[in-house]
């Protein structure tokens, strides 16, 4: 359950950092970019754990999404016009981890636990 809560928090933090980068007119987004890198790192940890739990396809797709989020954040700046593809990649990757969190929560709540 802890991983689910931390993943939700990471998605919220990443969305907040992403929003700040795209709507602010600052020239330096050190804290926002650091937050996005930390979130991408957590997403990689989540992907690894999902893969090790026997859900290889979900884990591999999650690794790809985490790497995409980590790489796309470098192309994002104020506004969305110059980096529309990176913007879409970032939102899709974050949306993927919302789905993964839902799958983990569903399986935790409604699947019988092994003793």
What are its keywords?
mainly alpha, 4 helices, about 120 residues, about 75% helix
Binned, the helix content reads: over 70%
Strand elements, count: 0
Counted by DSSP, the helix tally is 4
The rough form would be described as elongated
* Biggest sheet statistics: none
Order of helices and strands: HHHH
List the helices and strands and how they pair.
Elements lengths: L1 H22 L6 H23 L3 H17 L11 H27 L5
Helix pairs in contact: 1-2, 1-4, 2-3, 3-4
How would you describe what is shown here?
- With 115 residues, the protein is mostly helical.
- It has one domain (2-110).
- It has helices at 2-23, 30-52, 56-72, 84-110.
- The longest helix is centred in the last third of the chain and has 27 residues, at 84-110.
- It starts with a helix and ends in a 5-residue tail after the last helix.
Q: How would you summarize this macromolecular structure in one to three sentences?
A:
This protein has 115 residues and is mainly α.
């Amino acid at each position: 359950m802890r991983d689910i809560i931390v993943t939700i928090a990471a998605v919220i933090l990443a969305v907040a950092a992403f929003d700040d980068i795209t709507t602010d007119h600052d020239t330096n987004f050190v804290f926002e970019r650091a937050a996005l890198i930390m979130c991408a790192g957590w997403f990689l940890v989540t992907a690894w754990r999902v893969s090790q739990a026997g859900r290889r396809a979900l884990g591999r797709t999650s690794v790809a999404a985490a790497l995409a989020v980590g790489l796309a954040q470098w192309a994002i700046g104020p506004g969305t016009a110059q980096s529309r593809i990176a913007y879409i990649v970032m939102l899709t990757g974050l949306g993927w981890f919302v789905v993964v969190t839902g799958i983990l929560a569903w399986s935790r709540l409604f699947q019988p636990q092994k003793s």
